[in-house]
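User: Structure please.
Assistant: Input sequence and predicted structure:
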Amino acid sequence: MKKIKLIFRNLISFFISFYLIIVFLLSLFLLVSIQVSLVINIMMILFSFGLFCFCIYKFVYAKRSFHLLYFKGLSGLLSFTFLTITTFFVLIFFFSINLMISNEPSKNLTLEEKFNLYMILFRENQTSQTNYNAIKENKLVQSYLNVEIYYEPDERDLLPIIKQNLDTADSITTSLFGSVKDNEIDLILHPSTEELYESTKLFETMGYFDDPNDTLGVAISDLEEIVTDRMPGTFYFQSTLMHEYTHYRLQAFIKEQGLFVYKVPLWFHEGVAEFVGMYNVTQRYYPFRETSFTKLVTHDDWEKYRLKDYDVYLQSLYAIQYIVNQYGETMIKSIIEETAKANDFNEGFTRATGITIDDLQALYLVEAKQTGDET
């Protein structure tokens, strides 16, 4: 009975200690600068490894006589050893987040933003990591500009179309953002939307841009239609390719301004990408169910409304079209630049345009309806 009580006491000590360590580390890294966090983080990793080595030594020479803090006996030694191991991996996790932040151009993070980054491990609905190497395996590859194009032999006739669209997207985005330093990126052709979903778990989409992996993907809805320049296949393919390439270019420009990509709400990202994808395309106004732009900020927000009865792509497109029609295409660049100066999108948007996001919400549909009635 006495041994059982000791085991439970050591287990309770473990859970309490682990909880306090998490709270301490989180509080510490939130309050100190990222450079200091990295130094402290490395020192703590080495210290936790040293404690693990100490535990191994105790296993050899002092199993039952072990007594450290509230940990006693063999069960205490086991609990303390497990505590050093879990703490080591927690410190590795914090180090990876701190290193990621240090490698980004912007270090002007609020406490809330840093907290959200540290809590990324515990977020719900995390997407699984896509194995792009497996998707690219056995595909042919051809380089064009800064893009490596991965395709199947029967998709070879798409290459001239892809190159032409990359040229167009490059030209439009350069006029919007100015010269941007390009990374080497991969473009993967998926033979169908079904295969794209199976490979990436991205639901109801024809394309994607994975920023951390510098990878674009586009689904081929109808190969024959695209190659023979027939609608709607050719339109969907080309507009999707230009849309996803714009995501790449816009995010590269945002980083060059010293901003984290997520500082700019997703409706703006998607609206600009749709604007380029639909460049010079005349379209009528289509009624749709809208939501507040304040509810379309994060990826989770976007997916929540995208998969419901909301046309968030059309809403974002109309908003960007309103901005361009009122202020000119250079306003897109100005909004990002002012956001970088203010380190806040809403404030930067107002500085650049003279209106608030609430004003935009009230104004953009009025013009969209008028323009649609004229066409």
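Residues 91 and 116 are 17 Å apart (CA to CA).
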